[in-house]
Structures are given as C-alpha cells and as structure tokens.
C-alpha cells in the first residue's frame, strides 16, 4: 500500500462536508502524517478579514480564506535590526504536542515551519523589495536572512527535542516556469542557509521535508546534497513526475503529484481514478512516494472528483 495524505482548503472542506453529509469526514481519511504546527497557539490577531501573524505581517483574507494576501510592509532597511521577532522558544508553540504524539497511532509525525526563509523575508519586507535587493542591496538581504535563520535554528533545535519523525519547511521558490529568483541567486543567498537548517534537523536524527511550489527541479541535486528526504508538492503541471521519479527516486522521496490545477477541478471521475492509480503504480513502485494532491485541495475541485480520488487511495 502506498501511504497518502490529503489536505483541504476551507471552501473545499466545506464542500466535502456537504457532499458526505458528515462534518467529521476527515477523521476517517486514513492520512499517514500527523502534522504539528510551530506557530504559537492563538497567535493570530483578527480584525474582520485582516489577519495579523506572529511577525506583524497582515493578511487580507477577503478572497483567499486560508492564507490571504499580504497588505503591509512592516520591515525595512532602516528598522531591520530593531524589528521585533517572536520568541522561537515560546512554550505556546508546542502546546498539546505531547498528547498528540502519544495518540499518533502509526502516523508519521512532522513538525512544520511555514514561510521558513525566502517567504518569511518577502512577507516582511515586500516581494518586489526583496527581489530588487537581491540584485542591488545584498547586505540587507543577507542580514535579514541571517535573522530569520537564527530564529529558525532555535525553533528547529527545540522542536527536535520532541519524538517527532521529521521537520517540514515551507518556502515557495518557484513559479510555473522556473525559479522566482533564478538558480544563481538561490545558490548564493538561499541554498547555504537551507543547508544549515537541514543539517541541524538531520543531526537530531530527523527526516527533512520541503514544500516548494513551482518548477524547481533544477534544485533537486542541491537539496539532496543538503540532506533533503521528501519533496512536496510534486506538481504535475510544472514537472514530469514520472521522469522525476526515474531520475531522482533513488535519492529522494516525493509527496504530492495529483493534479489540483487540471484533473481535480476539470477532469471526469474516470480520469481522476486513472491518474491516481497510475501514480500509485508507477511513482509508488518500490516506495519513496506519499500520494497526495499537489496542494491543499482548492475550492474549484469537484466534490465527486475528490470522492473518486479518496476511493482509490483508501481502496488499495
């Protein structure tokens, strides 16, 4: 059996509650991962559709109810050193972990740091500002990334004191056609700090996951060398998932692969079942695969297609 894991956006979850007429349908999915978040409990400040995170970044959730769109620029070159970061060792980050791990069953326990480096930088300072500074103010970018890295290393050290199986880092580096900042700047500014985070987790005996949307397969050799074990979301729209398995499957496991841009919203039930079975048979052969939608299921995915996917995953 190929392990699988399925996450939902808020509107997709609501649609499936209606489809199954069961508000607790997720409890019976059979997901293989127990994901523990590292944000402090009750850390979000909510004012209508504006949500402020632990770093003081404000997210407008008028349209996107799950994440939102950044609507402020709290950190600048002038306040970089004085800008307050949250406490990475805050006990509220780990509330309930002991109980959740104890009740894990056979789930694989993953501690998650979202917006872990590049994403944290641009959410604080602005995407355009960061990309421009990568070219003409690298001192600023290096200082900011070092502050984020120092915060992350302390958080990783603390999280790994629990009996977790892996650390997962969220840090989108790609778009549909390649790397946002290009391979040269990634290797100069992002890669060395990624390696330090991965090496710390590996030194604690933990596996390493990365979630990076987009066409980023040119980084696979760098990531493998840095200690990466599992790559997600494995988007079939931007990379040949079967070729990636063939080329890197002996060194890297993949997590994702089921199309959320095409098949789940626009395919037929038969097409969904065929795609999922093909992934299980070909990418899941000899292990190294966690079957999953390429991202948390979006609101435009058809409920009957989601149900068809679950039928195949659960029927293995």
Number of helices: 11
Distance from N terminus to C terminus (CA atoms, Å) equals 6 Å
Query: How would you spell out the order of helices and strands?
Result: HEEEEEHEHHHEEEHEHEHEHHEH
Q: Largest beta sheet: what is the strand line-up?
A: 1-6-7-10-11-12-13
Helical/strand content category: alpha/beta
From the alpha-carbon coordinates, what is the Rg to the nearest angstrom?
19 Å
Strand portion, in percent? 15-25%
User: Uncertain segments of ≥5 residues (pLDDT<50)?
Assistant: none
Indicate the topology:
Blueprint: H1 10-20, E1 33-37, E2 45-47, E3 50-52, E4 58-60, E5 69-70, H2 97-102, E6 108-113, H3 118-125, H4 127-136, H5 138-159, E7 166-170, E8 174-175, E9 178-179, H6 182-203, E10 207-211, H7 220-226, E11 230-232, H8 241-248, E12 253-258, H9 263-266, H10 269-282, E13 289-293, H11 303-314
Parallel strand pairs: 1-6, 6-7, 7-10, 10-11, 11-12, 12-13
Antiparallel strand pairs: 2-3, 3-4, 4-5, 8-9
Helix pairs in contact: 1-11, 3-4, 4-5, 5-6, 6-7, 10-11
């Amino acid at each position: 059996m190929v392990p699988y894991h399925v996450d939902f956006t808020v509107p997709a979850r609501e649609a499936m509650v209606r489809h199954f007429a069961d508000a607790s349908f997720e409890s019976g999915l059979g997901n293989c991962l127990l994901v523990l978040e590292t944000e402090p409990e009750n850390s979000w400040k909510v004012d209508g559709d504006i949500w402020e995170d632990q770093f003081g970044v404000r997210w407008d959730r008028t349209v996107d109810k799950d994440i939102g769109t950044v609507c402020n620029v709290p950190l600048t070159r002038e306040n970089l050193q004085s800008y307050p970061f949250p406490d990475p060792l805050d006990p509220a980050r780990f509330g309930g972990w002991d109980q959740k791990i104890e009740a894990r069953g056979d789930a694989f326990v993953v501690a998650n740091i979202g917006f872990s480096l590049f994403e944290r930088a641009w959410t604080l300072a602005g995407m355009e500002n960061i990309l421009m500074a990568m070219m003409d103010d690298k001192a600023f970018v290096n200082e900011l990334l070092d502050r984020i890295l120092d915060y992350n290393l302390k958080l990783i050290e603390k999280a790994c004191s629990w009996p977790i199986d892996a650390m997962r880092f969220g840090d989108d580096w790609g778009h549909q056609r390649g790397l946002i900042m290009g391979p040269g700047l990634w290797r100069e500014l992002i890669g060395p700090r990624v390696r330090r985070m991965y090496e710390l987790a590996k030194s604690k005996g933990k596996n390493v996951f990365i979630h990076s949307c987009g066409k980023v397969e040119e980084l696979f050799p760098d990531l493998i060398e840095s200690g990466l074990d599992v790559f997600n979301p494995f988007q079939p729209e931007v990379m040949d998932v079967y070729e990636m398995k063939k080329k890197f499957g002996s060194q890297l496991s993949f997590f994702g692969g089921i199309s959320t841009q095409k098949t789940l919203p626009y395919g037929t039930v038969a097409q969904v079942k065929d795609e999922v079975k093909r992934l299980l048979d070909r990418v899941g052969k000899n292990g190294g695969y966690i079957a999953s939608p390429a991202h948390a299921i979006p609101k435009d995915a058809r409920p009957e297609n989601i149900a068809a996917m679950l039928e195949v995953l659960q029927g293995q």
